[in-house]
Design goal:
mainly alpha, two-stranded antiparallel sheet, elongated
């Protein structure tokens, strides 16, 4: 029995050793890597990178020697120099119009990426957008601002050297009261004046604010201020346009050329030279006021209002493309600067520059001494009965008449 049991033990040991050796072999010898999959062919789509100096039959590096090289279309260029799209971009820079699905009535320039070169007054020959920027930043802003400051400086010098003109107050002075402005005339004037002041202040901030106020206020506060003033500008614009028409129609009758206008101009209104302190005789409005009326209200007012309406795209029959808006903006900028310069003198005379002038527009009445000193011909016509001293119905008289009707 012993040999039999020994044989069984030897067989078991041999089997156990064989299995262990197989496991060790599996751990030591790694599996062979799988065969690599075949690479997919490269996708040949669009324009591929190409070195034109690599000598190949389809590429001609010396194609620029062709006399008509610069006249080639983009398709012709790609035949000799694939990927060279210079003709296309040259056309884009020249204002070439591409293809767009938007209708012309809604988007007249949807297919134009860059405006064609143009030369505005004061600019170089360049694309229209850059030309407009040059005109605005190199001419309109610096010279327009300088002109306005010069006018304000001249007014300040005149005030501190000469002081207010005139000697008699407009109300509570000598003689009977004369109605200079009716309630309707004063309402039209003040509506136009308030709208003008809002437009002038907001326009100055929009034009010059980033050079003066932005460094002081900072971006957040300046942005808020600009937004508020721009909103006020948009609302005051229509009020100014309508009231300007009413003012023109209301005061047209008394602003035609009359006797004494030329003499008033030649003597500078009595503010200079030998006639200083003695205002030349004039009618209801002197020649200076008439210049403001025809030059400021009519001519400059027309350009300011029409260009402002165009900038808001409110004028019919106009193609509102970029170049149109650039030209309209230049007209608006020039006309508004000139109007502010002209009206600055008018505001000065109507407030602190002439004694009694502000009260006359505020309350509507002047006394005989004021009328005789500043508008002698107008005063003579009133005394002669050609012009009524009271053109509107006084409030007291109106209340009395109303009471009589009720009784």
């Amino acid at each position: 029995m012993a040999p039999a049991w020994a044989a069984i033990v030897l067989v078991a040991c041999a089997a156990w050793c064989g299995s262990a050796g197989a496991q060790n072999k599996l751990q030591v010898e790694p599996l062979a890597p799988p065969a690599a999959a075949p690479a997919a062919p490269a996708q040949q789509g669009g324009i591929q990178g190409q070195n034109i100096f690599d000598v190949k039959p389809e590429v001609k590096p010396d194609a620029s020697s062709d006399p008509k090289y610069l006249e080639q279309t983009n398709a012709q260029r790609n035949k000799v120099q694939p990927g060279n799209n210079a003709p296309m971009w040259r056309g884009v820079a020249g204002g070439m119009e591409g293809v767009t699905s938007l209708p012309k009535s809604q988007a007249p320039e949807a297919g134009i990426l860059i405006q064609a070169p143009v030369q505005y007054p004061g600019s170089r020959m360049t694309t229209a957008g850059e030309a407009w920027r040059q005109v605005r930043n190199e001419w309109l802003i610096p010279y327009g601002g300088a002109l306005f400051l010069i006018v304000l400086g001249a007014i300040a010098i005149f005030y501190f050297t000469k002081g207010p003109i005139g000697h008699n107050p407009a109300d509570g002075g000598k003689g009977a009261r004369i109605e200079r402005f009716t309630p309707f005339e004063r309402s039209a004037h003040w509506s136009n004046a308030i709208a003008f002041c809002i437009l002038a202040v907001s326009g100055l901030v929009m034009a010059f604010g980033k050079f003066i106020l932005l460094p002081v206020l900072g971006g957040s506060l300046f942005g808020w201020l600009t937004w508020v003033l721009k909103t006020m500008h948009n609302f005051a614009g229509p009020v100014f346009a309508v009231s300007l028409i009413i003012v023109f129609v209301t005061f047209l009758r008394d602003n035609w050329p009359q006797r004494g206008d030329l003499g008033w101009l030649l003597k500078g209104g009595g503010m200079f030279g030998k006639s200083e302190g003695h205002e030349p005789p004039s009618n209801r409005f002197n020649a200076g006021e008439k210049l403001i009326f025809w030059g400021g209200v009519l001519v400059l007012g027309f350009f300011v209002v029409s260009s402002g309406l165009a900038l808001d795209k409110l004028l019919p029959g106009i193609t509102y493309d970029r170049q149109t808006m650039q030209i309209v903006h230049m007209f608006h900028n020039v006309s508004t600067i000139l109007m502010m310069c002209m009206f600055a003198g008018h505001i000065y005379i109507g407030t602190i520059g002439m004694r009694g002038a502000y009260t006359a527009m505020r309350r509507g009445y002047v006394d005989e001494a004021w009328a005789r000193e500043h508008h002698a011909y107008w005063y003579e016509d009133i005394k002669a009965g050609k012009i009524a001293a009271q053109r509107s119905q006084p409030l007291v008289a109106a209340d009395a008449n109303l009471g009589e009707q009720r009784a």
